[in-house]
Every structure is written in structure tokens, then in C-alpha cells.
Specification:
Helix content: 40-55%
Radius of gyration: 22 Å
Number of strands: 0
Strand content: under 5%
Structural class: mainly alpha
CATH class of the largest domain: Mainly Alpha
Number of domains: 2
Low-confidence stretches: 9-26
CATH architecture of the largest domain: Orthogonal Bundle
Number of helices: 10
Largest sheet: none
CATH topology of the largest domain: Flavocytochrome C3, Chain A, domain 2
Bound molecules: heme C
CATH superfamily of the largest domain: Flavocytochrome C3, Chain A
């Protein structure tokens, strides 16, 4: 009896191990990458249209471009960390030539990298919008003055 149970457990363990190792790591823990705001447009037409029309973020790269002549490469890289989408992160902005779709601040600076969500359409596959996130780019003192929820009507979309 005991032997049988042990054998069953052993077999079950092998099965589980077999199943797990059969699946590529990428399928279990997909690395989320940045897809750019255009990729959101087909399903979130209103948010996209408002964003492109009203949000300064949708044009944030032009500020860097205008001043680039007077800046060193290191200084420009520093601008990228706040004026583009996902600079320095997996699948984020690299350069205007390689990743033109990520050169402005897009939806994903607030909602997180969208590759998993555009496949699944599941809101769980996005990040929560939080004030902490705004603070990575915005002056901490200024952030205290704005509440991100009214932002929906004041520039985000
Ligand atoms: C193929 C269609 C599709 C694409 C592309 C898509 N979404 Fe969605 N999105 C959905 C659906 C469906 C929902 C769920 C709507 C609902 O539950 O009311 C959703 C919900 C959301 C929500 C709401 C989350 C919540 O908590 O309610 C956000 C934010 C969002 N999407 C952002 C994005 C962003 C940013 C992109 C681009 C990176 C994007 N979506 C691309 C289909 C899409
Ligand atoms: C990746 C960096 C980054 C993050 C994260 C970020 N912002 Fe911004 N935001 C910017 C930049 C850069 C500008 C200025 C764009 C310009 O004028 O060229 C800006 C502009 C704004 C403005 C100016 C108004 C307008 O018309 O667009 C507001 C308000 C704002 N952001 C609010 C927020 C809030 C709220 C959050 C968090 C939910 C947030 N931002 C997250 C970089 C960021
Ligand atoms: C720590 C994040 C951060 C860095 C780094 C940064 N910026 Fe900004 N920048 C912002 C934010 C946030 C705003 C929006 C200001 C606001 O309304 O609070 C902004 C606004 C601007 C504006 C005004 C845009 C407008 O619409 O009037 C210019 C120009 C600008 N930045 C250029 C640059 C340049 C050039 C660099 C690199 C030398 C740079 N920024 C680096 C976050 C940053
Ligand atoms: C400045 C930050 C910011 C940016 C950029 C931004 N959003 Fe949002 N978005 C928000 C906030 C805040 C909410 C409300 C979420 C909450 O209450 O937790 C929201 C909610 C949403 C929702 C849920 C429906 C709704 O209106 O409440 C969708 C869909 C959405 N965003 C799509 C987008 C798309 C698509 C883009 C780009 C075109 C985008 N967002 C860019 C901050 C942002």
C-alpha cells in the first residue's frame, strides 16, 4: 500500500516536472515589452484620440530634439529617461532611428509595457497607475499638488 502511494506520488511528480519543463520559460513568464501608443488605438480609439490631441506627453520628444545640438550624449541620454517611453528598460526606447514609435511619452509610461495586454486584452496584464510612477519623472513637490485621477480630464486622455 505504502509503496503504491509512493510510486503514485513519484509518477505525479515526474508528470508535473515533465509538463513544466516542456513549456518554454517565455510562455510561463512573458517579459512585457513596450509596443507604442499606436498599438492601443484600434481598441481604445477615444483615449488615443484625446491623448494625441491634448497631452503634451504625445510631443515630449520635440523638447529634447530642439535642445540636442547644445547637449552632450550623456546629457541627451538623461533627457531620454523622462521624455521617451521605457528608456533603459526591456523593450523600451533605444534611439529615434531604432524605436521611433517610442520616442514620445506614450500610454505605457503610465499603464506599463503593453505587449501582454494587446494579446490578452486583459486589464490584469497592465500595471496600476500610481502617483509613485509619476514621481519617477515629475518633481516630487509638484506631484503632491496633482491627483492623477482628474488627469483623465486634464491631459492624459
Ligand atoms: C486588441 C484590443 C486591445 C488593445 C490593442 C489594447 N487594449 Fe486595453 N483593453 C482591451 C479590453 C478588451 C479591455 C477591457 C475593457 C473592459 O473591461 O471594459 C481593455 C482595458 C484597458 C484598460 C483598463 C484597465 C482597467 O483596469 O479597467 C487600460 C488602462 C488599457 N486597456 C490600456 C491599454 C493600452 C495602454 C494599450 C496599448 C499598449 C491597450 N490597452 C491596447 C483591449 C485592448
Ligand atoms: C516617463 C516619464 C513620465 C511619467 C512616468 C509621467 N510623466 Fe507626466 N510628463 C512627462 C513629460 C516629459 C512631460 C512634458 C512633456 C512636454 O511638455 O514636452 C509631462 C507632462 C505632464 C503634464 C503637463 C500637462 C499636459 O498637457 O500634458 C501633466 C499634468 C502630467 N505630465 C501628469 C502626469 C501624471 C499625473 C503622471 C502619473 C500618472 C505622469 N505625468 C507620469 C513625463 C512623465
Ligand atoms: C527627471 C525627469 C526629466 C528629465 C531628466 C528631463 N526632463 Fe524635461 N521635463 C520633465 C517634465 C516632467 C516636464 C514637464 C514639466 C512640468 O510641467 O512639470 C519637462 C518639461 C520640459 C520642457 C518644457 C516642455 C514644454 O512643453 O514647455 C523642455 C523644453 C524639457 N523638459 C527639456 C528637457 C531636456 C532637453 C532634458 C535633458 C537635458 C530634460 N528635459 C530632462 C521631466 C524631465
Ligand atoms: C499620464 C498618465 C496616463 C497616460 C499617459 C495614459 N493614461 Fe490611461 N489612464 C490614466 C489614469 C490615471 C486612468 C484611471 C485609472 C485609475 O483610475 O486607476 C486611466 C484609465 C485608462 C483606461 C480605462 C478607461 C477609463 O477611461 O477610465 C483606458 C482604456 C486607458 N487609460 C487607455 C489609455 C491609452 C490608450 C493611452 C494612450 C493613448 C493612455 N491611457 C495614456 C493615466 C494615463
Amino acid at each position: 500500500m505504502r509503496v503504491e502511494i509512493r510510486a503514485a506520488i513519484f509518477t505525479a511528480a515526474l508528470l508535473v516536472a515533465g509538463l513544466v519543463s516542456d513549456r518554454p520559460i517565455a510562455a510561463r513568464q512573458p517579459v512585457r515589452t513596450y509596443v507604442g501608443s499606436e498599438a492601443c488605438a484600434q481598441c481604445h480609439e477615444t483615449e488615443f484620440a484625446n491623448f494625441i490631441r491634448y497631452a503634451k506627453k504625445a510631443r515630449s520628444f520635440s523638447a529634447v530634439k530642439k535642445m540636442a545640438d547644445k547637449l552632450t550624449r550623456a546629457e541627451i541620454a538623461n533627457c531620454y529617461s523622462c521624455h521617451t517611453t521605457g528608456y533603459g528598460k526591456t523593450g523600451g526606447f533605444v534611439s529615434p532611428q531604432e524605436t521611433p514609435h517610442l520616442q514620445n511619452n506614450g500610454c505605457e509610461v503610465c499603464h506599463g509595457p503593453g505587449s501582454a495586454h494587446i494579446e490578452s486584452e486583459d486589464p490584469e496584464d497592465l500595471e496600476q497607475v500610481s502617483m509613485e510612477k509619476c514621481k519617477t519623472c515629475h518633481d516630487k513637490r509638484k506631484v503632491a499638488e496633482f491627483n492623477f485621477k482628474p488627469m483623465l480630464y486634464g491631459g492624459a486622455h
